[in-house]
Amino acid sequence: MSFMRGDFLSRTRKLVKGLAKAQPAWLKAMEHGPPATFPRSAGKIPTITLPEDVYVKKFYKKYPESKYHDAIKFHAFDPPPSRVFALRVLELKEQGVSEEQAMAIADMEYVTEKKAKKKAYTRLKEIARLQGKRLPQNPYPSAIKEIQAEERKYVRDRFFNPKILEIVEKQKAEAAAERLSRGGDW
User: Fold this and answer.
1) Do 56 and 117 fall into the same domain?
2) Where in the cell is it found (predicted)?
3) Could you tell me if 25 and 59 lie in one domain?
């Protein structure tokens, strides 16, 4: 029925009308209340772009290490630094500042905020050392270190998980059998 045009209901009507198929019991009910039809896209679906996307790209060119921050964090309340930068540039442009000056101001704000976070963490560490307490976890870790911390448990797991060790032993045995079947131990 792929050669026929139309939806399921119109195809079935054509088959019944042409006596190629017996009339199904549901056909009259479907004619009284046909299913909803959804419009099809007329060609290529346009990409969604936001006004700040241009500045996000420029931010990533200047600070490529920031690419590893999640662009969309569903579990976070604050947006990634690239979006904050871009939104600040747009805000400044609306106030009448030129694009170059707006980018310079937003860049300066980003750098000072980053330095302030580093300084706050070093102060936290100093206080913990003076009090003899354990050093606090970095509240502002780099995105790469966050990703590595998430993956660390899986990396260590390969050495201690019995299921994984069993799979490794099977693979070693298969490789040894393969070498012996080839005719030598290399």
Assistant:
1) yes
2) Mitochondrion
3) no
Spatial distance between the Cα atoms of 9 and 83, rounded to a whole number of angstroms? 48
Residue 178 lies in a domain: no
How many Å apart are CA 68 and CA 146, to the nearest integer? 9
Cβ atoms of 31 and 23 closer than 8 Å: no
Q: Are residues 67 and 114 in the same domain?
A: yes
- Whether residue 99 lies inside any domain: the answer is yes
> What values do phi and psi take at 63, rounded to 5?
-125, 75
Band (2; pLDDT cuts 50, 70, 90): low
* String of DSSP letters for 117-133: HHHHHHHHHHHHHHHTP
| 61-98 tens-digit pLDDT | 998 888 777 666 655 677 888 888 999 999 999 999 99
Q: Which two tokens stand for residue 108?
A: 């300066």
102 secondary structure, DSSP code: H
Is 1 domain-assigned?
yes
Instruction: Spell out the SS3 assignment of 134-150.
Output: CCCCCCCCCHHHHHHHH
